[in-house]
Write a structure and sequence with these properties.
alpha+beta, 6-stranded parallel β-sheet, 6-stranded antiparallel β-sheet, 21 helices, 26 strands, about 40% helix, binds ligand ME8
Length: about 625
C-alpha cells in the first residue's frame, strides 16, 4: 500500500551564533514528530536549515573581521554537528546561500513580478535591525520593536514592494474558515485582527547592504531576508525547476515555528503562495518560548543555555525527554537547572531506569536470563495488559495535537504501573518456592512484554534509549514497529542481558552546586582610555574628512601588517596605507565605503606613499572600518 506523505519543517535558524536550548526545543519536537510519523507508517519529509542572509549576519561577520560566507560556514558546521549529536533525523538541510535556493528564490520573485504583485516604490518606515523587520508607525509603539522591544530606526530607500494588500481578504477568509490552519487559537485570533486592521504592501528589497539574493535584473537591490527565508519550504523541494519532490510532498503538513514568527508564516508566506497560485501549508503551529528567570533567552542578549554542555553532562535522550515532557505545547515555560534535574531524576532514573534494571536483573536471576513464556493461568494481570495495549492509541491521540508532554505522560503511566506490578507481585518472594514457578514465569514474562511495548512507544522521543532497552531485552534483531504495541504475548526465549544503569540517579544538591560553579564568569568590565584634552573648534575644523570608496586593496609587499588601498574620492583616486592586515583580507574591503582623513600630510611607509588615513573603530584587539551609504567624495563634518 502506498504510504501517506507527511511534510514537517522547523524554522531555518539564523547562524549569527551557536544555537541555544530554545532552538533545540523546536528541532527536538519536530524530530519526535517526524520519527513518530515514520513509525506509524508515513512517508516523511523533515526539513530544517539555516537562514544565512541579511544585515544582521553581515554585521556579525564584520564584527568578527571575516566575510559573511566564511562566518556562516563556520557556524553552520557547528549546527550540523549539534544535530548529529542529537540524532536529529532530518531528511534535508537547506542553507539559503546554496545555489539551488538562490536561483529558485529569484525565479519566485520573477513569477510574482510577472503576476503584477511586485512593483517598485520608495520605502520609509521603522526598521528593527536585530529582527530584520520593518514596522509601521502604529506598530512601533514608543519607537520600540513590538517583537524584541529594542529601539527601531527610521529608514528610507527605493525598494520593491509586494502587494500584500491584494491578499487581505483571502487571508481573513483563511483564518475565519479554516481554524486548523493556524494554532494555537490565541495566535489565530491575533492574526485575524491584525489582518482586519488592514495589510499594507510589504517592502521586499533592500539596497543599504548587499548580503542577500540579488533582485533579478536590478542587482543593486537584494531580496528581503524573510521572502528569501520563507521560500526555503518549497525551494528545498525543488520548486519550480525540479518539481518531483515538490509534487510529492507539498503542501506541508505543518510548519513548526516559535510564536514570534507566526506572523511571517501565517500572513506573508500564505500571501506569497497565493500570488504564486500554489496551495497553502495545511498548518502553521506556533510553540511557546523557553524562558529563563530573567526573561527570554536570546543570542543578542547573551543569556543563553548551551545544549552542548547539557548533553555532555546528561546525555542526548535525557535532554530530549526533559524538553518534550516538561513544557506544554503552545505555552511558555521556565527553564531552571533544578526543574531539569528533578524531572530527569524522577522520570528517567527512578521510573524508567528502575523498570529496566529490575526487569532485566530479575529475568537473569530467576530464569537464567531467558524470557519465559507466560504461565497458563487465565485472566490474571489483565489490568496491566489492558493498560499496555491501550497506551499506543492514547499516545496517537495526543500526538495528533502535538501534545508531546501528554503523550509521554501516558507512556510513563504504563511505566509506573509496571513498576507497581513488580511491588505487588514480589517476584523475589515467588522465587523462594518452586511451587510458584509458573506464577513467577508469568510475572517475568509480563514485565518483559510491558517493557518491550514501552521500548516501542518511546522510540520517537528517545531513539537511543529505545535501542538500548531492546538490546538488553534480547530484541536487538528487530526494529520496532508501531503494530508491536498491539500484542502482548509475543516474547519467549529471548536472551536478556542487563546493562549499566541507563539513567544513573543524581544527587541534585551536588549537581546544582557543580552547575553553579561551571557558570561562565561575567565578562570583566572593559577599561576605556580616558578622553584626550579638549581642543578648540578651530583645531577640529582643520581636519578634512571625506567619504572614500575602496577601489582596490592589496598587501604591502614589505610589511605584513599594512594594506595598500586605492581610494576613490569623487574625481580623485589616491593611495592610502593602513595597518589593518591582521583584521581584514584585502578582498573583504574592496567595494566598501570608508571615511578618510583627507588632509593629512603624505607619509612614506616602508617605501610606499600614504596620502591620508582611514578611520577604524579600535577595541584594543581588532579594527572595524567606519562606513556610510553617502557617495564617495562627500564631506564628512
Ligand atoms: O527567526 N524558546 O531564526 P532564529 C523556544 N531565521 N524556542 C526558541 C527560543 C526560545 N527561547 N529561541 C528561539 C528566525 N527559538 C528566522 C526563521 S523561518 C523561514 C526563518 C526557536 O534563529 C523558535 O522556534 O531567530 C523560534 O521561532 C526560532 O528558534 C527562531 O530562530
Amino acid at each position: 500500500m502506498e504510504k501517506k506523505q507527511y511534510y514537517i519543517t522547523t524554522p531555518i535558524y539564523y547562524p549569527s551564533s551557536n544555537l541555544h536550548i530554545g532552538h533545540t526545543y523546536c528541532t527536538v519536537m519536530a524530530d519526535a514528530m517526524a520519527r513518530f510519523k515514520r513509525l506509524t507508517g508515513y512517508d516523511v519529509m523533515f526539513l530544517t536549515g539555516t537562514d544565512e542572509h541579511g544585515q544582521k549576519i553581515q554585521k556579525v561577520a564584520t564584527e568578527h573581521g571575516t566575510t559573511p560566507q566564511a562566518y556562516v560556514d563556520g557556524v553552520v558546521a557547528g549546527i550540523k554537528e549539534l544535530w548529529k549529536t542529537m540524532e536529529i533525523s532530518y531528511d534535508d538541510f537547506i542553507r539559503t546561500t546554496e545555489e539551488r535556493h538562490v536561483k529558485r528564490v529569484q525565479e519566485l520573485f520573477r513569477k510574482m513580478y510577472e503576476k503584477g504583485d511586485i512593483y517598485k516604490g520608495e520605502y520609509e518606515g521603522w526598521y528593527c535591525t536585530p529582527c530584520e523587520a520593518f514596522w509601521t508607525e502604529t506598530q512601533a509603539v514608543d519607537g520600540k520593536c513590538p517583537d524584541c522591544g529594542r529601539p527601531v530606526e527610521k529608514a528610507k530607500e527605493e525598494a520593491y514592494f509586494f502587494r500584500l494588500s491584494n491578499y487581505q481578504d483571502r487571508l481573513i477568509e483563511l483564518f475565519e474558515t479554516n481554524p486548523e490552519f493556524l494554532q494555537p487559537e490565541s495566535r489565530r485570533n491575533e492574526m485575524l485582527s491584525f489582518a482586519r486592521q488592514g495589510l499594507e504592501d510589504l517592502c521586499i528589497s533592500r539596497s543599504s547592504f548587499d548580503w542577500g539574493i540579488p533582485v533579478p535584473l536590478d542587482e543593486k537591490h537584494v531580496i528581503y531576508v524573510w521572502l528569501d527565508a520563507l521560500s526555503n519550504y518549497i525551494t528545498a523541494l525543488g520548486y519550480p525547476d525540479e518539481p518531483e519532490k515538490y509534487n510529492h510532498y507539498w503542501p506541508a503538513d505543518v510548519h513548526l515555528v516559535g510564536k514570534e514568527i507566526v506572523r511571517f508564516h501565517s500572513i506573508i508566506w500564505p500571501a506569497m503562495l497565493m500570488s504564486l497560485d500554489l496551495p497553502l501549508p495545511k498548518k502553521v503551529l506556533g510553540h511557546g518560548w523557553i524562558l529563563l528567570e530573567g526573561g527570554k533567552m536570546s543570542k543578542s542578549r547573551g543569556n543563553i543555555v548551551d545544549p552542548v554542555k547539557l548533553i555532555e553532562r546528561y546525555g542526548v535522550d535525557a535532554l530530549k525527554y526533559f524538553l518534550l515532557r516538561e513544557y506544554t505545547f503552545g505555552q511558555d515555560g521556565l527553564f531552571t537547572n533544578e526543574v531539569m534535574l528533578t524531572r530527569m531524576n524522577s522520570d528517567l532514573a527512578n521510573d524508567l531506569g528502575n523498570l529496566v534494571s529490575r526487569t532485566t536483573s530479575m529475568i537473569e536471576k530467576y530464569n537464567g536470563g531467558i524470557v519465559p513464556a507466560a504461565g497458563k493461568e487465565e485472566g490474571t494481570d489483565s489490568e496491566l495488559k489492558q493498560l499496555a495495549l491501550g497506551t499506543a492509541a492514547k499516545v496517537e491521540a495526543h500526538m495528533d495535537k502535538f501534545s508531546f508532554s501528554l503523550a509521554l505522560e501516558e507512556i510513563w503511566t504504563l511505566i509506573r504501573r509496571t513498576n507497581k506490578y513488580i511491588d505487588e507481585t514480589s517476584p523475589w518472594l515467588l522465587a523462594k518456592d518452586e511451587a510458584n514457578k509458573e506464577r513467577l514465569n508469568t510475572v517475568l514474562h509480563n514485565l518483559a512484554e510491558s517493557l518491550r511495548i514501552v521500548s516501542v512507544l518511546i522510540q520517537p522521543f528517545m531513539h537511543s534509549t529505545s535501542t538500548e532497552i531492546r538490546k538488553q531485552l534480547g530484541l536487538w534483531f528487530a526494529d520496532p514497529e508501531w503494530a508491536d504495541t498491539q500484542e502482548f504475548d509475543v516474547m519467549e526465549g529471548e536472551q536478556v542481558k542487563k546493562g549499566n544503569a541507563i539513567f544513573p540517579r543524581m544527587d541534585i544538591e551536588k549537581e546544582l552546586a557543580e552547575l553553579e560553579a561551571m557558570k561562565e564568569p561575567e565578562a570583566p568590565q572593559r577599561e576605556y582610555p580616558p578622553i584626550k584634552d579638549l581642543i578648540d573648534y578651530e583645531d577640529f575644523a582643520k581636519l578634512d574628512f571625506r567619504v572614500g570608496l575602496v577601489q582596490s586593496c592589496e598587501k604591502h609587499p614589505k610589511a605584513d601588517k599594512l594594506l595598500v588601498f586605492q581610494i576613490k574620492m569623487g574625481n580623485e583616486v589616491r593611495q592610502i596605507l593602513s595597518g589593518v592586515a591582521d583584521c581584514y583580507k584585502p578582498e573583504d574591503l574592496i567595494g566598501k565605503k570608508v571615511i578618510v582623513v583627507a588632509n593629512l600630510k603624505p607619509r612614506m611607509l616602508r617605501g610606499l606613499e600614504s596620502k591620508g588615513m582611514l578611520l577604524f573603530a579600535d577595541n584594543g584587539e581588532r579594527f572595524e572600518y567606519l562606513t556610510t551609504s553617502a557617495p564617495d567624495g562627500e564631506i564628512v563634518s
